[in-house]
Amino acid sequence: MAPDLNSTKDLFVFLGKSVFSVLEDMVFTLIPKPQKNVAGEIVLITGAGSGLGRLLALKFASLGSVLVLWDINKEGTEETCEMAQAAGATRVYAYTCDCSQREEVYRVADQVKREVGDVSILINNAGIVTGKNFLDCPDELIEKSFDVNFKAHLWTYKAFLPAMIANDHGHLVCISSSAGLTGVNGLADYCASKFAAFGFAEAVFAETVAQKHMGIKTTIVCPLLINTGMFEGCTTKFPSLLPVLEPEYAVRKIVDAILQEKVYLYIPRVLYFLVFLKSILSSKIATLLCEYLGIFNVMDGFVGKKKKD
C-alpha cells in the first residue's frame, strides 16, 4: 500500500509543479521576466578575440561584470580587453588560450583561479567551421572541429564547475547552433560537434537538477547563421522567415536569456516550431520541409573564414 501512496503523492507533486510552471510561463509571456544582477560576477568568455565573443564581452562590461577573456589570438583578445575597458569594465583579464588543448585549458584555468577568483558565469563560445563536405574534409580538421566546438566544453566544465558546486552559485552557457538541432549539407563535422555540445550541456544540466544544485543555472543557445564573418556568403531561401542574424541582435537575445536564466534559447523563434515539426512529422515529410526551406543548402555560397576561435 505504501508504494502506491508514494506513487500517488509523486504524481500530485508532479502535476502541481507542472501547472505552476505553465502558469509562470504564461505570465512571463505577458510581462518581462525579472533579470538577475551580474555586476561583480566573474564572467569567462572563450573565443573573445572577435565576433560574437567580443560583443558578449562588451555587453557584460556594460553590466559591471568582471571579465575573463580567452582566445587563441593574443592580439584580438587584447583589443577586446581595451574595448571592454572603454565600455565601462573596471576589471578585465585577457589570456591567450588554445581551447582545443586540454592541458592548456587546465593550466590557464588554474592561472585564472589564482589571479581573478572563481568563475561564476562560463560562456563556451569558441568555435570553428570548415565548410567542407564530409569526404573532402581532412581528418585533422574534423578532429579540430570536435576539439574546439565540443571537447573544450568538457575541459572548461571540469576546471570551473567544482567551485560553482561548492559555492552553489554559477551559470553554464553553451553556444551551440541550429546545426546542433538538424543536419546541414556541407557541415557534417560542425553539426556533429554542435550536437555533442548541446547534448553534453543538457546532460550536465540534468545532473545539477538531479543532485539538487539549484544555484547552478544552464543556458543552451542555438542560433541560426550569425553575420560575424564565420559563415560569410551563406544565405537562406526565405530570409524573412530564417534570417541571417545580425550579431548585435543575437548578443542582446543571448544576454537576456542568461539574465532571465532561460535553459533554452533558439533564435529566430521559428526554430522552436521547426524543431517541434521535425519531432512529429515522418522522416520523409521532415526532409521535404527542410529541402523546401533550403535548410540543407545554406552553405552553398560559403566563402567565410575557416576558423573563429
TrEMBL record:
Gene3D superfamilies: NAD(P)-binding Rossmann-like Domain (3.40.50.720)
Pfam families from the UniProt entry: adh_short
InterPro entries linked: NAD(P)-bd_dom_sf (IPR036291), SDR_fam (IPR002347)
Top-level taxon of origin: Eukaryota
PANTHER family named in the record: EPIDERMAL RETINOL DEHYDROGENASE 2 (PTHR24322:SF728), PKSB (PTHR24322)
Family label: Belongs to the short-chain dehydrogenases/reductases (SDR) family.
The protein's name in its UniProt record: Epidermal retinol dehydrogenase 2 isoform X7
